[in-house]
Design brief:
It is a single chain. This protein is α+β, with helices and mostly antiparallel strands. The protein has one domain: GIY-YIG endonuclease (3-Layer(aba) Sandwich). It has five helices and three strands.
């Protein structure tokens, strides 16, 4: 590996990538998908790429993308985390809390969005019990 490449890799690892929350907004029907990422530019590029290839894991979002076209969607940053001075700090918990707050605010479920509603503790326990017993 040449020294220039090593230097570029070192610089990339030392530079903090913007992290936070993003949304994919359908400008025709107003529905949104809210997501969180440690690398906002990377995830936004990845989401657009998956949608353009027709392989996004959110089938409802993919169906609307196919129906309305890429030009009717906007991918934008909702909120960013400001890095602190601790190089070993784990931002995942902060991202999760931030995402919960935005999901509560926007309620992007059903007719309003593409996210799946998170189950509460009681509902998760019921689901686990049903899965273990083989009942639906």
């Amino acid at each position: 590996m040449n020294s220039k490449r090593k230097e570029l890799i070192k610089d990339y690892k030392q530079n903090q990538r913007p992290m936070g929350l993003y949304q994919i907004r359908n400008t025709v029907n107003g529905k949104v998908f809210v997501g969180a990422a440690m690398d906002l530019p990377g995830i936004m590029n990845s989401q657009k790429f998956q949608l353009s290839l027709g392989g996004h894991r959110n089938k409802s979002l993919q169906a609307d993308w196919n129906q309305y076209g890429a030009e009717t969607f906007v991918i934008e940053i909702l909120d960013e985390i400001t890095p602190n001075q601790n190089p070993g700090y784990d931002y995942r918990g902060e991202l999760g809390t931030m995402q919960d707050l935005w999901l509560e605010k926007l309620e992007p479920y059903g007719d309003r969005g593409y996210n799946d509603r998170k189950l509460g503790t009681e509902d998760r326990l019921k689901q686990m019990a049903q899965e273990r017993s083989g009942k639906d």
